[in-house]
């Protein structure tokens, strides 16, 4: 990939525009991930933090604060909070999913152990909570504490909804709103609240983050069946093997005849997966247009995210955020 | 045990004196442990919450607030926060320790699975953070967020210090201060801060909780080698099997000759444990007075806790807290 290519990606353009803030946030993260007493904490955190994540969520907080005219110093703290909460959930997710790879590297639970991932995740979550008190805003604290509860609730819901063919689109939306969109919407909302933006703008930034997060997760779920491994950093078919009820499966199941239903019941509910089953699942999804319709729904959410920004002050920052909404679903082309 | 016996225990007397508050807190906990979307959350939480824990930590918050003259409603919220943080750490601890029993019942990780324990723990932690915003006090939030970070740090430190014979008493004190005393001291400190008590009283209540927590954990660690299974609700020798460097072991190792050192190295560092090893370990501890000296140190911390209360307003509540400090180590007689 050439530098020119890179610069056309909205999140790279955002990172360039917010370069000073991003550097300050990275410094703060490095400072706060230290532990005087337990050196394993920074070891594990560094493994994740320095693996080259996109820092998409904290960038949203920084961008939202600027877009709403904030000129103080505390958006850095809130962005770091958002990244700490995100990193904590990654550590715990990898334990829950028994993952082996994250961001193209072996996961912490594989390199160290599940115990360390659980406890270091707890530590980072608490570090995030410490940082969010910096602006002294009770509302900001409420938003981020609420988001943390909704994230965990979404993850538990996913756990119980997995392997259950009766899972519908409403439940799926609840799951991804919880496990993914809640942190996106909290990230954008706190930026606006911190800036003291009018309630209509706070609501618009929340809606943007919510729709962006939903579009982002839907795209991820679709790429797990259709994208290349390189593009998403994890192996195609992971969700199938983990018997997760994501939108492509839910829609294929909804359109299934008796024979197809028996297939889904065997591979998802009973977990009896054999060679060729993933290919057959893909064939069924294509037959019923489940992948195409999922892509369409994800694009709709991307468009909704973009439209939420209409009432925000026009300018380069708003354009970049709008382009980001297109970009997260453009991966699906 | 007769009712009269029961009423002589300081935590039962405290529970009686604070009965209305405790009932209000239990109601709040039950209300907040619900999840509209993920029924597994209240299932697991109820399993733990209703297993008859002593509610010692939240009781400390309630007592501290009253002792400092608080008359408002928010000590209930903070007590519930403390209990949620505690319950979250129990869920995660059982995953980390691969425990099978907790409070005399099978653990959640055994009844459900590790995944649920990790995620429901995260949920309860976030629920606790939501509740702590109720009084609108940034200082209270800081204290509880700090405590959460210190708890996780202590747990990680214990993980890395385990199986390492070089672990000294300083590290041991750091571990138990983190994993146990930090929540005790935060529980008592926030009660005083909420009440707007003078700084000397805030400090005294912090010192009381800190020393009480240390005495409590030291007693637990000693009982793991000497107490009956019934008295502490877990099996004797758990720490030995988990190769944890608790004070009795640290002191026995410090006094060990070459042969004894080889024994400790085999069972703790190499984890090669055979039949009779626990008995031999106990014999070595007795030989060097490690159990007796641990008991003495625990009693010293209990006395320190009691003495911290000297500057607090005299009365029944202070007496009960002082008696509690004696009681947590009186288990050792």
Automatic annotation (TrEMBL), chains A, B:
Q: Which cofactor does it need?
A: Mg(2+)
Name the UniProt record assigns to this protein = Octaprenyl diphosphate synthase
Q: What SUPFAM superfamilies does the entry give?
A: Terpenoid synthases
Q: State the EC number(s).
A: 2.5.1.90
CDD domains referenced in this protein's UniProt entry, alphabetically: Trans_IPPS_HT
Organism source for this protein? Paenirhodobacter enshiensis
The organism's place on the tree of life at top rank: Bacteria
Question: Biological process GO terms, please?
Answer: isoprenoid biosynthetic process
Biological role: Supplies octaprenyl diphosphate, the precursor for the side chain of the isoprenoid quinones ubiquinone and menaquinone.
Q: What class of enzyme is it?
A: transferase
Any one GO molecular-function label of the UniProt entry: metal ion binding
């Amino acid at each position: 990939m050439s530098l020119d290519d890179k610069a056309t990606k909205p999140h790279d353009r955002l990172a360039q525009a917010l370069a000073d803030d991003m550097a300050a946030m990275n410094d703060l993260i490095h400072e706060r991930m230290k532990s005087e007493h337990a050196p394993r904490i920074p070891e594990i955190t560094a493994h994740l933090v320095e693996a080259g994540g996109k820092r998409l969520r904290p960038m949203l907080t920084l961008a939202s604060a600027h877009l709403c005219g904030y000129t103080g110093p505390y958006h850095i703290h809130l962005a770091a909070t958002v990244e700490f909460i995100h990193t904590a959930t990654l550590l715990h997710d990898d334990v829950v999913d028994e993952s082996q790879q994250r961001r193209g590297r072996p996961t912490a639970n594989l390199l160290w152990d599940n115990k360390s991932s659980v406890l270091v995740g707890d530590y980072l979550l608490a570090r995030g909570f410490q940082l969010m008190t910096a602006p002294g805003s009770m509302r900001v604290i409420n938003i981020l504490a609420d988001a943390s509860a909704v994230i965990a609730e979404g993850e538990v819901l996913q756990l119980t909804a997995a392997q259950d063919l009766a899972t519908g689109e409403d439940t799926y939306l609840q799951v991804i709103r919880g496990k993914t969109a809640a942190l996106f919407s909290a990230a954008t909302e706190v930026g606006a609240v911190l800036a003291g933006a009018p309630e209509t703008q706070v609501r618009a930034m929340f809606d943007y983050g919510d729709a962006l997060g939903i579009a982002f997760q839907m795209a991820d779920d679709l790429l797990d069946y259709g994208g290349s491994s390189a593009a998403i950093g994890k192996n195609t078919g992971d969700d199938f093997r983990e018997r997760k009820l994501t939108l492509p499966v839910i829609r294929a199941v909804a359109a299934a005849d008796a024979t197809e239903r028996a297939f889904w019941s065997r591979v998802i509910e009973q977990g009896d997966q054999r060679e060729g089953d993933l290919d057959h699942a893909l064939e069924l999804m294509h037959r019923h247009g489940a992948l195409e319709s999922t892509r369409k729904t994800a694009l709709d959410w991307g468009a909704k995210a973009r439209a939420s920004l209409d009432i925000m002050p026009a300018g380069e920052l708003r354009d970049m955020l709008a382009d980001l909404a297109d970009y997260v679903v453009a991966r699906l082309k």
